[in-house]
Amino acid sequence: PFVYLTFDDGPTDVVTEKILSTLKEYNAKATFFCVGNNVQNLPNEYQKIIDQGHSVGNHTMTHPMGWGKSKKMYLKDIKKAEELINSNLFRPPYGKINFKSNKTLQKRFKIIMWDVVGGDFDPNCSKKQLIDNIINNVEKGSIIVLHDNQSVKNKTLDALPLIIEGIQKKGFQLKAIPFTPLR
């Protein structure tokens, strides 16, 4: 009876720490799909994610939209992030993978998408809608996507305890997606 809570875009100053604190309070684990530039700028926050038993995945170096990019550019961006994010998990920014790169990526990574979108990135989505979007759609094995960034911090951080409580009330445990270091 597991579900997988994931956070894209971090680590982020202050936000990551508050997410980690909330997860710890509820004895919940999550997966953080990190942007290489953010890991480079906040290595201590990145290390805290790992030290607290959460998993990490590659979310590229610079968060490019995969569609319309050259295969060479896209793979180079991911490779650069891989130097900082030692994980076989990959999630394309915006959920839009560079199709020319897909086969190459599948040889090295497990590509992780989601089936439940909270909507924290949508300015028209209220905190209540965010919570309802998740609680009403989560089922055994669901992968939920939320964000660890400054633009959504208040909504995400305010909703997170209620999301976790709602998931746990439905009888699910929050677990990190297992990953394997690449080196």
Can you give a write-up of this model?
β4, α5 (102-108) and β5 form a beta-alpha-beta unit. The strands form 2 sheets. Strands 1, 2, 3, 6, 7 and 8 form a 6-stranded parallel β-sheet that branches. A two-stranded parallel sheet has the order 4-5. The radius of gyration is 15 Å and the shape is globular. It has helices at residues 15-25, 36-41, 43-51, 71-82, 102-108, 127-135, 153-169, and strands spanning 2-8, 30-34, 55-58, 89-90, 110-111, 116-117, 143-147, 173-174. By secondary structure, it is of the alpha/beta class. The longest helix has 17 residues, at 153-169. The protein starts with a strand and ends in a 9-residue tail after the last strand.
